[in-house]
Amino acid sequence: MSRSESRQLAVASATLGPWKTAAGVGAVVGGAALGIDLITGHWSTDILAGPVGLALFFFFLVGTVGGRMREHGDRRLQRWAEAHPWESALPAAGALLVLNTLALTLLGSWGLFGALFTSLLPAGLLLVVAGVVGSVKRARKSS
Fold first, then answer.
1. Which member of 30, 62, 101, 138 lies 3.0 to 4.6 Å from 119 by CB, making a disulfide possible if both were Cys?
2. What span, in angstroms and rounded, lies between the C-alpha atoms of 139 and 44?
3. How many Å apart are CA 97 and CA 51, to the nearest integer?
4. pTM more than 0.85
């Protein structure tokens, strides 16, 4: 299998997640974070950047990990995602990195490089969690 085909499978496997549920969880977490910021008086010009970042992280976390846990959908994509747990988590981590960087840059007072380096932590954490969940699921299935 070529690298291009492997990348296409990784992106296609990302569609297996429960994205409607993930959107709901992201909205609730982001709304709660914004409410806490408003109540506690943490008023600033970038009051939306933190809650949007949290909403994006939980959206991708629930969608990606939920896709690893589901047992329905395209069987071939599921088998590929189970065989390549780390590679199948890369599209979600990359999307989180880009979107969080944009949110911090556009909604906050971050510069591009500061926002990029700050976004590496949640994207890396998402990659690790989704990769470990996929690896554990694969190990449990094979034993």
1. 101
2. 47
3. 15
4. yes
Backbone angles phi, psi at 74, to 5 degrees: -70, 115
Spatial separation of the C-alpha atoms in residues 7 and 102, rounded to whole Å: 23
Residue 73 DSSP label: S
CA distance 109 to 139: 44
Which of 5-14, 75-84, 101-110, 116-125 is predicted least confidently? 5-14
* Long-range CB contacts (within 8 A, 24+) of 139-142: 141/82
Q: What are 6-63's pLDDT values in tens digits?
A: 777 778 777 778 889 999 999 999 999 999 988 988 777 778 999 999 999 999 999 9
What's the per-residue H, E or C state across 99-129?
A: HHHHHHHHHCCCCHHHHHHHHHHHHHHHHHH
Q: 3 vs 10, 62, 137, CA distance in Å?
A: 10, 27, 24
**How far apart are the C-alpha atoms of 110 and 21, rounded to whole Å?**
30
